[in-house]
Amino acid sequence: GAGVSQSPRYKVAKRGQDVALRCDPISGHVSLFWYQQALGQGPEFLTYFQNEAQLDKSGLPSDRFFAERPEGSVSTLKIQRTQQEDSAVYLCASSSIDRGVGKQFFGPGTRLTVL
Amino acid sequence: AQSVTQLGSHVSVSEGALVLLRCNYSSSVPPYLFWYVQYPNQGLQLLLKYTTGATLVKGINGFEAEFKKSETSFHLTKPSAHMSDAAEYFCAVSPGTALIFGKGTTLSVSS
After folding, report:
1. How far apart are CA B108 and CA B88, in angstroms?
2. What percent of chain A has pLDDT over 90?
3. Is A25 part of the contact surface with chain B (CB cutoff 8 Å)?
4. Cα–Cα distances in Å, from A42 out to A45, A62, A89, B35?
5. Are A91 and B102 within 8 A, CB to CB?
6. Which chain B residues contact residue A59 at CB under 8 A?
7. Distance CA B99, CA B33 (A)
8. pLDDT tens digits, one per residue of B22-51
9. Spatial CA neighbour of B48 closest among B21, B76, B85
């Protein structure tokens, strides 16, 4: 596709459920990022992949959060045993630059609501 | 650690008026600076970025920003606001890979 796509666009989960959020980056983009955007806040970095390697996961808020990119393309962010504080928009971005500061292209996000 | 402060969570201007959105950063190394715009239910779109070189950076949709090292600022301006500029604007700094965002400024444009 022409841009970064994310699915689902909206997800409602009951507290304690596991969820999986998918990101399809722009074809050929080496770098992939996940951000969390709480209501009324700016996006906050969660994790970064270069191809299939997860090079930085310092932003993941707890061990309930797990991300993978097994073939260096599609990525999945998984949240186990969801809590109300996990409610946010989860943004995925990709970049063609493998190091340094390249232009990040953002997807529309997945809005997660935990009841 | 690097951080970004956006002064003013909400800015209102009239159509045709000057737009000024303020951003100050904290960085221990020469920063890479960005402005992104976010329309409702859409992803963030890059307006402009500063890495090195000329301190006045021109972006899309008539926006520009000036990097002022002495003031640790990277304010976003547009000479004449248009109704379509109404959106959320985020300033960001990068230590080299991931982006660190400010809390955002909502721009409202009235006719």
Report:
1. 9
2. 88
3. no
4. 10, 19, 10, 12
5. no
6. 98
7. 9
8. 999 998 777 899 999 999 878 899 999 998
9. B76
Chain A residues touching B103 at Cβ < 8 A:
40-42
Given this model, what pLDDT does residue A101 score? 66
- d(Cα A64, Cα A32) in Å, to the nearest integer? 20
Cα nearest neighbour of A102 on chain B? B97
The burial of A105, by beta-carbon neighbours within 10 Å (0-12 exposed, 13-18 middle, 19 or more buried), is given as: buried
Residue type (1 letter), A62: S
Interchain CB distance below 8 Å, B98 and A100: no
User: Lowest mean pLDDT: which of A18-27, A44-53, B49-58, B98-107?
Assistant: B49-58
Beta strands at A110-114 and A10-13: parallel, antiparallel or unpaired: parallel
pLDDT at A100: 57
Q: Given an 8 Å threshold on Cβ–Cβ distance, is B101 in contact with A44?
A: yes
Start-to-end CA distance of chain B, whole Å, equals 41
Q: Is the pLDDT at B62 greater than 60, yes or no?
A: yes
**Contact call for residues A35 and A91 (beta carbons, < 8 A):** yes
pLDDT recorded at residue A98: 59
B92: tokens are 């960001």
